[in-house]
Each structure stands twice: as structure tokens, then as C-alpha cells.
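Good morning C.,

I know you're traveling, so I'll keep this short. The sequence:
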Amino acid sequence: MNKKIITGISVFAAVIVFAAVSTATRHIHRPGPETVEEKPVCLNDTLTNGMSDIDTLKAMDAYIEKFLKQWEIKGASLSVMRNDSLVYSKGYGWADQEAGEPMTPGKILRMASVSKLITATGIMMLKERDLLTLQDKVFGPDGILNDSLFTASIRYKTMYSITVEQLLRHQGGFTNSRGDPMFSTRDIIRQFRLDGPPDHNTLVSCVLKRPLGYRPGSWQRYSNFGYLLLSMIIEKISGQDYETFIQENVLHPAGCYDMHLANNYYEQKYPNEVRYYMHAGSEKVQEYNMSGRLVERCYGGNDIHALSGAGAWCGSTAELCRFVASIDGRPEVPDILSYPSISEMTEYFDPQTYSLGWNDTRPDKEWTRTGTLTGTSALVKYFPDGECWIMITNTSTWRGPGFTKYTERLFKKCRELYSPLLPHRDMFGS
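The C-alpha cells, ready to paste straight into the viewer:
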């Protein structure tokens, strides 16, 4: 079965990647018998602050700068899309104050739980290829993650009923009553007497030894761990590591060529990645790996890279707009998923039911995806009139996840005052 799955997806992935490269690359014609084919044009390499330095929007810039100063945020990136066209993309403040680097629209930032929208899209893509269903069981002999390590760790049979859809909707039964497993590495090392930070297989084995907080499907509780399991499902079915599969089958076909899983330390940052900052008054914490070192929480307090599809992606707000345009059902930018899959991801049930990947999708077609980590806050708001506003900061605030509601208010005010002044253009270049 595994050989069949891997072979099938390899062929399909090759076709998708070939098609994406064929349509997204530039061909430079020069004298001679051969045609030279360049690499795909990366959106982050084409955008500058000057492109959105517009006289009629100076007041909006001032309003945003005042907001950032009020919250003591070092830097932020904002992109606005209308009807699948990128109309505005600009950086505010500092990307790296110590290095003297201003924020620009080509900078990439940790997007925290916005990563879950990318992971959910990967799951839906596997579903479209008939490689899984949302009702497939996750654990047990007939489950996707049927590894003997996991089966031997399960002590409570209710875990055998967990489905893929329940993980997507945060209904898998996992709670944080003993701390979020993705953010309590030191506690897990101590509790299970590990030699060091657990890899994904070890972490899952440890968590499966604990009882569930509720019967799967009977309730919901936001779970980063559930989205780690979804990342591992993608790996198991595709035969590729999670990051490679998502880049080749989701992000590149969507026109996003500069998204990566973030690393833990400043010294490991990508060339065009920002520096992250803690809010005033925050204290250093013990390093996640039990070294005993005191570190800034955003640089070693947690194992960011290990979050994988639950919260580790970093990218620019402009490319994130391009990704959203590829899963919104609008015709202007070709979608990477079918319309039925997009409808399933955004279907509204009730205020208590999470959508697939999105935090919330309302009946009026307003969609929301938030993300918060130490050192960053991200908000994606897709509005019924076809506008999508995305902001990511490189600084924590004392409000934590609650800060996103203030960003929502910022978007609301800016839309009321300045949406009519946004230019009619498409910086995607398509």
C-alpha cells in the first residue's frame, strides 16, 4: 500500500511541479539556437516600499505608524489584495534595528498559526488525489499513523477513533491540561526522562500515553499538537518530508517561492528574514533544550522549528496574499484546489465549530486566520467585498494572542477611510 501511495503521488507531484514551473518561469530569448530558461520570479525580489509610497495614502501610513508606536512594535509588514490583485505592500519600522535594516515587503517573518492554513491545504490536496479521506482514522492498525511505536504507546482505546477531520477542526480530544506539548519541551524531557528534546516520533509517543481530555468529535479544543499530527500524516502518505511536500505541491504552484520552516535562533535566520523582539519588561527564560542557558523567549525559549505545520512557516505578507488568492475560489488567480475543496474548507456550521485551516469562516464569507508566537503576531482577514488584508509584526506585545483584535480594529478603520484610495493595479505581475 505504501509503495502504491508513494508511486502515485510522485507521478502526480512531478506533473504539478512541471506545470507550475512551465507557467511561472520567464523565458529569455537571445540570439542563438537555444532558449535559456530562468528560475521562477520570486515576488519578494520584485517589491519595494517605494512602489506603495503613494501621496494619497500618506494619512494611512501615519495612522499605521501611530498604531505600531502605541504598541511598541519594532516593525511590521502589510499587504492588501483586492479581487486577487496585490494593490498595496509595504514595510513599516525596522526589520532588524541593530543591523540598520528597515522593514520592506520582501522581508519574511514567522507567521505562527497561519501555518495551519497551509497544512490544511496540503491535506485537502492529498484528499483530491484520493490518497486519504477526512474520515480516515489516524491511529490503530487501520490508521494512517499505524507505526508500532505509536500503537504500543496508546493506552486509551478512544484514540483509535480520531479522524483526520477531527484534527483539522481541533476536535481530536487533545487538551493542554498538562501544558501544550509543542511549548512544554522541558517538562516532557523531565516527565519522560529523555536525554534531550524529543523528535516528532518521540513526542507523539509520549503524548499518546496520556489520556484524552474528551471523546473525539464531542467537543473542540484548540490543539497545536493535532496539526503536528497532520504534518506527519502528510509525510507518511507522500513519502516526503513535510516542508518539501508543501513547497513543491502547495506553495510553488501557488506562486510562493520564498516560504520556509523557521529556525530557532537569530544566527539561523534566512538571509531576508527579520529579527524578532520581545515586548518591554519581558524576562529571559530557560532554553527549551535543558541547557540551563537563559535566552530571549523568541530565540530558544521554544523549539519553533519543531512546530512544523502547526506554526513554523515564515514568509512575506505579499506571498501570503498570493497563497490566499490560490485557495479563495475567485477566478482571477488560478486556484490550486478545486472549488468543492475550497467550499469545504470555508463551510460555516456554527460559532463553535472551527473551519478547516481557518479560525473562522462566516456565512457572509468573511474569513479569519490568526497566528501568535513570542516575537510575532499575524492576522489574515479576507472580507466579503474581495479585499484581503494581511499584517505580520516582528514584536510581541503584552496582550499575547489578544493583540489580534486590535489589529482587526486597525484594518476596519483603514478600510473605512482608505480603501477607496487604494490603487487599481496588480503587483503580482500576472
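Safe travels,
E.
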